[in-house]
Design a protein that fits this description.
about 250 residues; mainly alpha; about 70% helix; globular; disordered C terminus
Length: about 250
């Protein structure tokens, strides 16, 4: 006789699977952060900063984990995104450190994370593990990476404080949704949105490369920001058009 797996039991299995993956990633992050801190002669705060950023991200991840149900495994796709989250934490720990080699390392982290982007989606489709949770995890990892790279671009004087808009736009859009309900509607998948995300990360990584000095670093960063602003404007217009009632001349006869 087969016994049906209850929802709480399935959630416990999923949570254990996620915690096991997070534990391995956290251990790897600690080792990498210590080695990088020693190699780049960073402050003693570097390792705690990376672990704190990673811990905050994982707390948010676990809070939204039920969206991955009815799947009971964290899965290889989310583990690939988790590897990207480790890279984001390594870059985030550089904030406040501030010396020359940081630009090259941050650019390398951004490019490596970008190279891994898309692997998670491919794995999810290949293994039948796609879920709203996985898509959101991937998107928020991208947003966090852009915020970190933008902050480092400003910190290293590669561009003015305006470059922080590249990272803040996503969070401003989410915050606006609390006041404007139609902004919370689900957006359809968009090749344009994916392309602009890649362009934005590439632009910030290029601006961080030590050989790209101001004003060229600022010009490159500004180009990426303009592309991002266009993408957000297009999404906002699309949501508005689907939210408002049709005008008289638009109604079917």
């Amino acid at each position: 006789m087969m016994i049906a797996v209850t929802a709480p039991a399935s959630h416990r299995r999923l949570r254990r699977s996620a915690l096991a993956s997070i534990g391995v990633a956290a251990a790897g992050l600690a080792v990498l952060a210590f080695a990088i801190g020693e190699r780049l002669a960073l402050s003693t705060l570097y390792v705690p900063k990376t672990l704190a950023v990673f811990g905050l991200g994982m707390a948010l991840l676990l809070a939204h984990l039920p969206a991955h149900r009815p799947l009971q495994r964290f899965g290889s796709a989310n583990q690939a995104t988790l590897a990207r989250a480790v890279l984001v934490a390594l870059a985030a720990g550089l904030v406040g450190e501030g010396h020359a080699p940081l630009g090259a390392f941050a650019a390398a982290v951004g490019l490596l994370s970008l190279a891994l982007d898309g692997v998670d989606g491919w794995l999810a489709r290949r293994n039948g593990l796609a879920s709203p949770f996985g898509a959101r995890f991937d998107m928020e990892t991208d947003a966090a990476l852009v915020m970190v790279l933008a902050t480092l671009t400003w910190q290293l004087h590669k561009a003015g404080a305006w470059v922080l808009l590249a990272g803040l736009l996503r969070y401003a859009f989410v915050a606006a949704g609390w006041a404007v309900p139609w902004l919370r509607r689900r957006l359809a998948p968009s090749r344009r949105r994916q392309t602009v995300c890649v362009v934005q990360i590439l632009a910030l990584a290029a601006a961080l490369v030590p050989a790209v000095a101001p004003p060229w670093s600022a010009i490159v960063a500004a180009a990426g920001l303009l592309a991002l602003c266009y993408s957000f404007a297009a999404d906002t217009r699309s949501l508005y058009r689907h939210a408002r009632p049709p005008l008289a001349h638009e109604r079917p006869i």
